[in-house]
Write a structure and sequence with these properties.
The protein contains eight helices and four strands; from the N terminus they run ββααααβαααβα. By secondary structure, it is α+β, with helices and mostly antiparallel strands. It folds into two domains: 89 residues, no CATH class; 62 residues, no CATH class.
Length: 161
């Protein structure tokens, strides 16, 4: 409920290894909303390989993105395990973009198919999609970064993606 503007503020990464100090002519709530928007966008792009576009004008978006992408705060948070974990805890729908160790993916695949002995229940939904929908989904999935050596996406994760 603080409406004070023209303030100096500091933020510390959840890992405790990175501090960021800035000032804003806006309120603290506005500054935090700005950082949350860009921090979430950058982590979304890292995990999915896709660009998240909001409903602002393209020039406004490009200008904000260019400025934000140059900030060390976002460079750090996009690579920091503690920041990524915090993001995933607040946005669990993104866990499907975090690859599993190969043995974990195999175990998850066995568990998934044992729980669905009659096949994939989502296949019915896929069959109902038209060719344009399938192409659109395939295009978006092609941007998902491949897992590093020794890691895989399980079948369940691929379905959720």
């Amino acid at each position: 409920t603080c409406t004070t503007s023209n303030i100096v503020y500091a933020m510390t990464c959840p890992c405790g290894d990175y501090d960021y100090v800035d000032s804003t002519p806006e309120t603290l709530a506005n500054a935090m909303a700005y950082h949350r928007e860009h921090g979430n966008r950058i982590i979304h792009e890292i995990l999915t390989g896709g660009v998240l576009i909001q409903s602002l004008t393209l020039d406004s978006i490009e200008q904000k993105i260019t400025i934000a992408n140059k900030m060390r705060l976002y460079e750090h948070s996009g690579q920091c395990p503690a920041a990524l974990r915090t993001f995933l805890d607040c946005n669990p729908q993104y866990w499907c973009f975090v690859p599993l160790r190969s043995d974990e993916a195999s175990t998850d695949n066995v568990s998934y198919f044992n729980g669905n002995p009659n096949g994939d229940p989502e296949l019915v939904c896929m069959m109902a999609m038209n060719a344009a929908d399938i192409d659109r989904v395939a295009t978006w999935l092609s941007f998902v970064p491949p897992p590093p050596d020794g890691y895989l996406f399980s079948y369940r994760q691929k379905r959720k993606q």
